[in-house]
Known about the structure:
Elements: E1 4-9, H1 14-28, E2 33-37, E3 52-60, E4 63-64, H2 66-80, E5 84-90, H3 91-97, H4 103-124, E6 130-135, E7 137-138, H5 145-158, E8 168-169, H6 173-189
Parallel strand pairs: 1-2, 1-3, 3-5, 5-6
Antiparallel strand pairs: 3-4, 7-8
Amino acid sequence: xxxxxxxxxxxxxxxxxxxxxxxxxxxxxxxxxxxxxxxxxxxxxxxxxxxxxxxxxxxxxxxxxxxxxxxxxxxxxxxxxxxxxxxxxxxxxxxxxxxxxxxxxxxxxxxxxxxxxxxxxxxxxxxxxxxxxxxxxxxxxxxxxxxxxxxxxxxxxxxxxxxxxxxxxxxxxxxxxxxxxxxxxxxxxxxxxxxxx
Length: 197
């Protein structure tokens, strides 16, 4: 079997950690994996040499990273020929999965996640095999003064922690592992669960 390609874009590093986690998990399962940062794509990258592609893209200010938008647009035709998964990493997903939040707040967060994923797919014209929302992290320690204030306001609206004295991780690693395992199992089994455009 050809290798699996994992491509990521990140700002503060959580999406890179997610991509590295996925790559390590797949390698432990005996699969060959190549890990690539979406903003540093080698010239002449040929996706046809891969058996599947997993894209991990972080969301900031309601939009996926421009490097990932560019990557998908430039390689949309190749991506459409392969099993592909989009992992959309956002703070909104943290709000959607927060069982202690009021139902209306969780519902609004889930709607925001769906809207951001749909906007990315429309913008790129891409139709992945599956799209998986993943909760990210609030990296208050890595933000400058202005970004910290902005993120604190966004966190307050999302119902996340506004305690800026520490970082807050929301990624549900077990759910992420299951999603990747299900995607790979479906890909190896020949199933196609392509979501509608």
